[in-house]
Each structure stands twice: as C-alpha cells, then as structure tokens.
Amino acid sequence: MLQFEHSGLKLCDGVTRREWLRLGSLTAAGLTLPEFYAAQARAADNQAPARNATAKACIQMFLWGGPGQQETWDLKPEAPAGTRGAFTPIDTSVPGFQICEHLPLMAQRAHKYTIVRSLTHTGINHGTSAYHMLTGHLHWSPGTLRHPTRNDMPNIGCNAARFLTHPDHLPANVQLPAIINDGDALAVPGQEPGILGEKHVPFRVLGDLTQKDFQVPSLKLAAGLSAGRLERRVSLREAIDGHLSHLAMEQNGRAVDSSYERAASLLSSPKTQAAFDLSREPAALREKYGKHNFAQSLLLARRLVEAGVPFVTVYWNWPNNSDDQSWDTHADQHRRMGKHLLPAFDQGVSAFLDDMISRGLLDETLVTWYGEFGRTPKINSQGGRDHWGFCQSIGLAGGGVTPGLAYGTSTRDGGYADTLPVTPDDLSATIFHCLGIDGRQHMHDNLGRPIQLSFGEPVRDILSSHG
Question: What is the pLDDT of residues 231-266, one digit of tens each?
Fold first, then answer.
C-alpha cells in the first residue's frame, strides 16, 4: 500500500521520488493502477467501432474444471449402465426440454436462456482447452501445460473491450474473483491480452466477495490519504517531474502522466467506488444469490454492467483447492455435484437472471456460461468422469439470443456432437456478433502481422436477429 513518510530523499511535503513511482500500489495483473492505465493509453488501435449490436455488454461465466454435460443440461437416462449418470431429468418451463433434478430453479427459467448441447473441440488438457474456449483460437501447442505468453491469442474480453464504449471512470474489461491456475500456481493461458499487449490487460477484482466488508484491494486509498489529498499529490507529481527531466519519461511519458491522473480520478470518483461496492446491495438480495464467491461475483458483475462496464468475466474458482467446489469431478461426482456444485450454481445463476431481468439489463447484455470441456461418456472406477472435449453443453441468454432453445444434439452416450456442432471459434464469433463486432476484421501481433479476430461463424440459428 502506498505510504507517505518523512524519510529518504524528500521532495516537498515529505514525499520521496520512490513513493511517487509507487503511487497507488493498486494491482491489476501485477500492474499498479497507473501502469494499468498507462498501458491502455499506448498506441491506440485502428479497429472498426462496434455497430448493429444486439447487446451493449457481455457477462461471461467460466466454470473452471469442466462440468459434465450428462449431469447438467444433457442427461442420458436411456444410456447403458456405466454411462448414464445417477441424476434424474426433470421438466422445465419449455415443453420437451429437460435438465438435471439438481437445477430446479434453472428449470423454472428455461424459457429465459438457451442451451447448446453440441459444443465440440478435441482438447483434453485443462490449460489449452481453457485457452481455446476463452480466446476462440486453438492453442499453438495443444495438450501441454503452458504459461501465458505475449504470443498468445487474446482473451475474448480483452479483444472485445477494445471496440466497446464505457465511462471514463470505469475499466472496459473486468475479471473476477480470481486468476485461474492449473496446479502449482501456474496461470492458465487465455486470460490475458496476449498479442494485443499490456494496454489491454483486464482490471482484476481478486478476493472473497462473500465477506461483508469486502473492498476491491486496488481501489482502497492508503491510510490517511483522502481523495482530495491524492489529487493534490498528482498535481505535485507533475511539478516534480518538470524538475527531474534527467530521469526522462521516455516516449510514453505523456501516457504515463495521463494514467496517473486517471488513476487518481478513479480512486476519487464516487461513481467508481459505488459501482464496485457490494455493501450497497440489500442483504436479502445477497442472500438470494447465495453465500458463494461465484454467486457474489455475479452480483458484482451485474453492478458493473449496470454502471457501464461492457465486459465482465466471472470465474468459478474453488477455494483452497476444495474438491467439493471443483467441477473437475474425476471422483465422487454424484455427491459433489448433487450436494455442492449444482445447488450453488442453480441458486446463484437463477438469482442473477431474475435480477438482470428486473432491472431491464438482460435484453441488452449477452450472458454466457461454459467450462473448458465436458466429461467422458464412461464413468470411471472412482465414480467420476474424466476430461472430454468432444462434447459439452453451454448456456447463453440475453441480448440477441433466442431464449428457450435446446440447440444441437449429442450421441446416445453424450460423448460426441451429433447434430449442429458448434466450435469454440463459433462461440467467439457469436459473442463478437452480438456485441456488434465484425469477427472477420484483423488484429495485429507484436510483429505487425494481421490475424483475424475469429475464424468461426456466428451460430445464427440461436440469434433472435438471425443476422
């Protein structure tokens, strides 16, 4: 946290040059908030603005671990023993459309969303499959465990946010409540801007949002530092830098100066603080969502979109590596899904949909949910299912999506897309399309080479516009 002390080489008011360079030690993917905005200010792209959008914003839920399609949206009660799951399908508000018995609240709202039962790819590794789903591009080295690199394709949110308008006091792209990793704190690729560069890094809200007094760490002022005092210190910094030209601000100096001003503006803006302040929500509504970090993150996502943030990604990330909260159900899936995973998802997402509808937000916000892959047709000896990219079920709702559909089918055992297959590339193209972004236009890598935003096709049959 930034501190102002009367020690070291002092500038006026007892502030050291080092402390100024630490102004607002407010982390977002390892960047201070000023660095975050400085990065965003560098080298503006010449992309075409979003047009003909059916959604102004997108809230993307990523169910890290990979939910099994056979235990959620595509049960196979007629499949042979050893393949069919233990759960019973139940009717929904859409005639002929059945889902899992442990999703009763979502069953009542089936006319508000659409399920695609034929999403398919070939990955079986957590990291590179997540990369494919989160970027819409196949990883250059699938099947291996990889760190994120500057040569990666950009996260869909990082890509889309470049085209979308948002208030100056808010970031364009937010990820919460964690950075997902695949063992040994190895961050999963696909969450970063990759070839777009650090100017498109997402703003991250990390922590346990179920806590009553939760505050976004990167928006907290240091003890004893008021908003007015911060603004005075930014003015002071400008004067100081005028006398320290020998330290040089490099060619991006103006962008850095602007970033400090914007960081101060964000820190001191009541609108910013209000958008990120979950304590302003009624206790009854927070209880309706449920005391689960994923659910409370959805509530914050709603607040952010309502305030004007155009892209928010909410990761389902299990605390303390608790298997009971992990969708990676290699073992004991009947108990884990029936007692923990599905009830939490059912409560949180149903409350979220109700909340979005009651505020008039769902019609103008694209909502999606999916994991990195599905699960194997065959139940293993530990009572679970293993990694399986060849088929999974995903959900979409809101701006531009025709609700109440069950699109595509899987084979009798739920293992493969049978009709109307959809790829991660098609999913990214669909997201771009709903946001009014032409997925056929190009971005450029660090060497200036053009790469198409998406090589997929929008799934027009599930879009209300059919455009």
Answer: 555 454 444 444 334 334 443 444 444 455 556 666
Please give the span between the terminal C-alpha atoms of the chain, in angstroms, as a whole number. Answer: 49
Query: With b meaning 16 or more CB within 10 Å and e meaning fewer, what string describes 359-397?
Result: eebbebbbbbbbbbbbbbbebeeeebbbbbbbbbbbbbb
Residue 17 placed within a domain: no
Q: How many CB atoms lie within 10 A of CB 349?
A: 25
**Most confident stretch, 181-190, 218-227, 413-422:** 413-422
* Domain membership flag for residue 164: yes
For residue 59, the cross-strand partners are 312, 367
| CA atoms of 419 and 427, how far apart (whole Å) | 16
What is the helix (H) or strand (E) element at residue 63, kind and residue range?
strand 57-63
> How large a percentage of the chain has pLDDT more than 70?
77
Residue 180 covered by a domain: yes
Q: Under a CB-based contact definition with an 8 Å cutoff, are residues 32 and 23 in contact?
A: yes
Q: Which pLDDT belongs to residue 125?
A: 93
List for the chain the helix, strand, coil content (%; round to 5). Answer: 35, 15, 50
Quick check: is 262 in a domain?
A: no
Work out the angle at residue 316's Cα, subtended by the Cα atoms of residues 315 and 321, and round it to the nearest 5 degrees. Answer: 120
